[in-house]
Amino acid sequence: MKKTLFALAALGAFSAAAQAQSSVALYGLIDAGVAYVNNSGGNSNWAAASGMVNVSRWGLEGSEDLGNGLKAIFKLENGFNIANGKLGQGGREFGRQAYVGLSSAQFGALTIGRQYDSVVDYLAPLTLNGSAYGGVMASHPYDNDNTNNSFRINNSVKYSSVNYNGLTFGALYGFSNKAGGFSDNRAYSFGTAYNNGPLSLAAAYLQINRGNGNLGGGALDSSASSGDAIFLASRQRVFGVGGSYAFGPATVGLVWTHTQLDNVASTNFNSTAIGGFNGQSVRFDNYEINAKYALTPAVSLAGAYTFTDGKLDATGQKPKWHTVTLQADYHLSKRTDVYLEGTYQKVADNEGTGLNAAINGAGGVSSTDSQVMVGTGIRHRF
Q1: Tens of pLDDT along 237-284?
Q2: Hey, CA dihedral for 74, 128, 224, 40, is it positive or negative?
Q3: CB count, 10 Å around CB of 347?
Q4: Which residues contact 243 (CB under 8 A, 6 or more apart)?
Q5: What is the pTM of this model?
Q6: Helix (H) / strand (E) containing 11
Q7: Cβ-based neighbour number of residue 88 at 10 Å
Q8: Where is 373: in which H helix or E strand?
Q9: CA distances from 35 to 40, 85, 130, 357 (A)
Q10: What is the CA radius of gyration of the chain?
Q11: Cα–Cα–Cα angle for 168, 171, 174, nearest 5°?
Q12: Where are the alpha helices (DSSP H) in the chain?
């Protein structure tokens, strides 16, 4: 009897140790609400909305302890529309992230799969649209700099450093996977961030080379239905810097990003084709100032103003966007909150360009040079 009890106790201890060495976690976020848009394709609209601030998603992540500070890691993350249950990111099962790799407590992590670029990893968290305080509705025009994470990089190898007293850095390379066309439809990026107490700083660079034509199977899928295409251009370059500083319950941030698009063949935003580019090169400079204030541990206010200076190289036209976003948020618990958010956007000097106002998530492009969207919703994290 004693031997049996000892064997069962030993087996239980071994099982507990094995479980401690490996872990798999289910996590997710659901964002649903109701929104009003004053002009979506020429008409006002009240609609049930999914992901007005943060896109709904669920995922699995796990690790296995391999000893000596080394772990095998993986993540599979799905995006979906809570209003109708459809998959996001062009119908992909794990369209937000899908990777596997190794993580070292001393040297950092190396992962392979479909992953976020360095702009999303390092710079976007300093913008209002790259955070839970503004999200989708606060995006820069057409999310031209991908700070709202509109697309991910396929076939990518990514390195992420460990934290060196607040300093982190990383790089990514997305392969074209094309024999005889190594540089066609490839992408690469790198970035760094420094977080020390109230101060946060970041810088990042992203380049996408699509070559000529509608190239599929590479770092980015080019079709509008893929969920990876806003601008179909021969080359897209994004770089930027940003910083924020916390003063007690208040945080103020500044971010600048520059986007250069060469030979823009077509665009698609809010499921609408955007005219006016006609194969020319386009530049966007986004200047954002944002602020957050915690009135109480449960109540927060946030806002941002972004001035976007554009230029169409062939025609010399210089459209300018003004985007203002305000949000009030109340936490019912650590995992559940309700919010009220509004965004106003106006375009100036856009005559003859076909570039009207277009707030991300509004369901369509405005038929005029201005657009307003107001929404209220609930978010739950698990």
Answers
A1: 999 999 999 999 999 999 999 999 999 887 878 777 776 677 889 999
A2: positive
A3: 24
A4: 126, 199, 200, 201, 202, 253, 254, 255
A5: 0.91
A6: helix 2-21
A7: 18
A8: strand 370-381
A9: 12, 18, 20, 17
A10: 22
A11: 155
A12: 2-21, 118
pLDDT higher than 60, residue 2: no
How far is Cα 361 from Cα 359, in angstroms, rounded to an integer?
Answer: 6
Residues 359/371, Cβ–Cβ less than 8 Å: yes
The per-residue pLDDT for 7 is 45
Q: How far apart are CA 124 and CA 307, in angstroms?
A: 16
Strands of 185-298 (E only): list them.
186-196, 199-209, 231-247, 250-269, 272-273, 282-294
What was the pLDDT predicted at 15?
A: 46
Cβ pair 28, 381 in contact under 8 A: yes
Q: pLDDT tens digits for 109-151? A: 999 999 999 999 999 999 999 999 999 999 999 999 999 999 9
Tokens standing for residue 2: 């004693």
Cα separation values, 186 from 101, 149, 192, 297, Å: 21, 18, 21, 44
Single-letter amino acid code for the residue at 111: T
